[in-house]
Design a protein that fits this description.
With 557 residues, the protein is α+β, with helices and mostly antiparallel strands. Among the domains are: 110 residues, no CATH class; 151 residues, no CATH class. The strands form four sheets. Strands 6-5-9-11-10 form a five-stranded mixed β-sheet. Helix 5 runs parallel beside helix 7, helix 6 runs parallel beside helix 17 and helix 9 packs antiparallel against helix 10. The radius of gyration is 25 Å and the shape is globular. The chain starts with a helix and ends with a strand.
Length: 557
């Protein structure tokens, strides 16, 4: 590596470091008083990893038991421990492990887009490339997907740079890094298949086998097979466990009848949250260059790919089901083909990036800096909700990390329940079981991606009458099932009943309380709202300035 190349690498690395530092500044300033995204994060993924690490089960045998959610669940019910970010939880406090994970994702995203921008336009100005990288890296990447989406630009650079040359050490290191820091089941497989299609297309069009790309794909696949060893164990070795996913379906209700516009804007489903500004910029850029007959090369290819992905996902959402007449393929219901929409942000920002790199006008770089500011201050959850609650940027109050997990309240609850608190079987009403599991307790309910079908039936027997007739709750519990919660029709699927909200008591619960107590052995009910029914006896209420919850405790009569 020449001195110039070495200085360039250092400069880009430093730029990514500073951008990532900007993204995580709320963690450094506020500590556990920072506001962190709850859905699919604090209520699930974060606590899964923390719970595994606290019990020394990150790298445990797939069939070993993990206490907490649903009382005990097999190790293979949770994400792999052979993952770069998961291993952070074994070496540091879980809060800081999460903050470091977010920092690294942004840093890697920056470097990835900088590399890719050199392929988008080989003679692009370095300042423009850095600005484009900063825009990409300051988008909101869902942490539990690792670098699956944030580093797609790096993969694009690898596959286009090495298609006609031998693989070197740098390429192998980059690919191994991606393989062990991305998440196969949530996103990675859909990215892998995209590059698999590219490899086939290039080999056919060039009339030669792109062996370097084939080796990339094979090495990448090997990383994923190693990482997901526990699922392979469940599928090929474990023969007694029947997963709730055998009755699982994506292609109903929430995932039904999406349209191309919603596919572009549903950031939480595409894994990246970004402003409407960017699709609008792409649209007018395409219109402008199309009128000038300059829509060729990279913009045309990526625009066509974007249209293809949008059309494919729309057709899947509108018409697809794994049920083929009388032939039912239950295991394949877990395969969500709509996740090919994870390609949309990369394709969108590749087209946008090309225009940004090519266009020259007064004030362009100021606009790019403003876009980075919007990404951070408006769309980054920690910036928006930690500092902006009193402003127009945030229309409602959210809990801080400290408030959400309410450790002070749980210390008081444990003292109230007595020395045997850890052996009690809890259930929850309108508060997430993850909060109790975080605090070392055991719950009969939980948000978990792979658990015994038998347990779902048991919980379903308790709540069947209560959710009957509610189309959403029936679909969510019986057909999706990842939220094995004790639902109620008064506040359906509302697990954000924070103490600063107004609410009335629950006056009726059509649960099978006898089955709940005698068969499931429930000891205590924790609720974020008061419950006024004869089947439950009120024991105490706990609230604390550092808690998001008023926690009402009941026993079953």
């Amino acid at each position: 590596m020449s001195s110039l190349q070495r200085n360039s690498v250092i400069f880009v690395g430093l730029g990514g470091f500073l951008l990532a530092l900007l993204v995580v500044l709320p963690y450094l300033f506020l500590g556990k008083d920072v506001h962190v995204i709850v859905s699919d994060n604090l209520d699930s993924n974060f606590v899964w990893l923390r719970n595994l690490a606290s019990q020394g089960k990150l790298l445990a045998h797939p069939s070993s038991e993990v206490e907490g959610f649903l009382l005990v669940t097999p190790r293979f019910s949770f994400p792999s421990g052979i993952h770069g970010f998961a291993l952070l939880y074994a070496f540091m406090d879980s809060f800081w492990a999460f903050a470091v994970q977010k920092f690294l994702i942004s840093w890697i995203a920056f470097v990835s887009m900088y590399y890719w921008s050199g392929r988008l336009l080989c003679n692009a100005n370095i300042v423009d490339r850095l600005a484009l990288a900063a825009i990409w890296a300051s988008l909101v990447f869902y942490p539990h997907r690792g670098i699956s989406l944030a580093a797609i630009p790096l993969l694009a650079w690898l596959f286009t740079s090495y298609k006609d040359q031998k693989i070197d050490t740098q390429a192998i290191i980059f690919l191994l890094f991606y393989g062990f820091y991305s998440t196969p089941l949530l996103s990675g497989w859909y990215v892998w298949f995209g590059f698999f299609a590219y490899t086939i297309f290039y080999s056919i069009s060039s009339k030669k086998t792109a062996w370097s790309l084939v080796l990339f794909l094979g090495l990448w696949l090997l990383c994923y097979l190693i990482q997901e060893y526990h699922y392979l164990y469940q599928f090929f070795v474990e023969d007694e466990f029947i997963s709730h996913r055998t009755e699982f379906s994506y292609y109903e209700y929430l995932w039904k009848d999406w349209n191309p516009i919603s596919l572009i804007l549903y950031g939480d489903y595409s894994g990246i949250v970004y402003s409407l500004i960017y699709p609008v910029m792409v649209f007018f850029g395409l219109l402008f260059f199309g009128m000038q007959k300059k829509l060729y090369g990279i913009p045309r290819v990526f625009t066509l790919l974007l249209i293809f992905i949008l059309g494919f996902c729309w057709l899947i959402s509108r018409y697809f089901s794994w049920s083929l007449g009388s032939i039912d393929l239950p295991i394949l219901q877990s395969l969500n083909l709509l996740r090919f929409n994870h390609w949309i942000p990369f394709l969108l920002f590749s087209v946008l990036g090309y225009w940004i790199l090519q266009m020259q006008f007064s004030g362009k770089r100021l606009i790019l800096v403003v876009l980075v500011g919007i990404n951070c201050l408006v769309y980054q959850y920690e910036w928006r909700h930690s500092f902006s609650y009193a402003s127009l940027l945030s229309e409602y109050r959210t809990p801080s990390f400290r408030e959400y997990f309410a450790e002070k309240s749980y210390d008081e609850i444990k003292a109230f329940l007595g020395p045997d608190w850890s052996s009690l079987r809890l259930i929850h009403v309108n508060m997430p079981p993850a909060v109790s599991v975080y605090n070392g307790m055991r719950s009969l309910d939980g948000y978990i991606q792979n658990y015994a079908l038998e347990h779902k039936y048991a919980v379903g027997k308790v709540i069947a009458e209560e959710i009957r007739g509610n189309e959403f709750l029936e679909w969510q519990f019986w057909r999706w099932g990842n939220k094995c919660y004790f639902q109620n029709s008064t506040y359906p699927d509302d697990y954000m009943r924070y103490q600063w909200l107004d609410f009335s008591p629950i006056m009726e619960l059509s649960w099978d309380f006898e089955y709940l107590k005698q068969v499931l052995g429930a000891d205590i009910v924790l609720s974020s709202v008061p419950i006024d029914i004869q089947e439950l006896e009120f024991l105490n209420r706990f609230e604390h300035p550092n808690s998001a919850w008023k926690i009402y405790i009941y026993s079953i009569r």
